[in-house]
Amino acid sequence: MRNGRRRAACAFAVPMAAVTAALTLVGCGGSDDGPTRERRERPTTSPDARRGPWGDGGKAAEAGRTVGAPGSPCTLPVAFSAARGWKAESVPKGTHRQGTVEVACEIDAKPAGNIGYLRVWTGDGDSPRAALEAFAEDRHPERRRHRTTEAGDGGTALAEVSYLSRTVLDGEELDRKPVLAFAADTGDGRLVIVELGGTDAEEHRAMLPAYLLAKKTLKVRG
User: Do the record's keywords include Cytoplasm (predicted)?
Assistant: First the structure.
């Protein structure tokens, strides 16, 4: 009941004068139940401190529909399992480019209860690491880390990057959030990047199992 009264007071404090708004920031930012949402969403490259920025050892999501194969919503040079409940949709060619790749498929987490996506990007190039470097550079990255790993089948080499993506407008930083992405060489001078993106660090952590599933089940279609 005490928390209900506090939330009600905060709801009426928003449109008041500047001095009242300042008091609202001090008195209405949290509750007796734990830390404020602002504190929980503070970006970090470590989804779980025990597993590091990559989520190593974390549990993959339950598999839903296969994405990438003929007959799926997106036809891609690779195929992998999307998390159960996530919805894949093909993106028209030329819609958006980042680094040396352009987005080809977006797998939306909203039907499963999260705000974010897995995006699949395709492009030319014979170096997954170089493609990831150019990809991250477009997002004003901080705390960038690279490594070499492999897909769950043990036969597909992957380059992987972890970084904080920063949105900057006219020299002012608007937000920052963690990003994970891996890249695979699909042959014939082509490559694919699979990126995990969310609205904030909390959503990033919640959606990490979907990313781990994609990495675990990825196969180059040839």
Answer: no
Domains defined along the chain, listed by start: 2-40 (no CATH), 63-220 (3.40.1000.10)
Q: Judge if pTM exceeds 0.85.
A: no
Q: Which two tokens stand for residue 89?
A: 């949709």
Tell me the β-bridge partners of 149: 158
Over the stretch 168-221, which tens digit does the pLDDT of each residue have? 777 777 777 899 999 999 988 899 999 998 888 899 999 999 999 999 999 998
Q: Residue 213's closest CA among 92, 119, 82?
A: 82
Rounded CA-CA distance 221/123 in Å is: 16
SS3 content of the chain, % helix, strand, coil (to 5): 25, 40, 35
Distance CA 180, CA 145 (A): 10
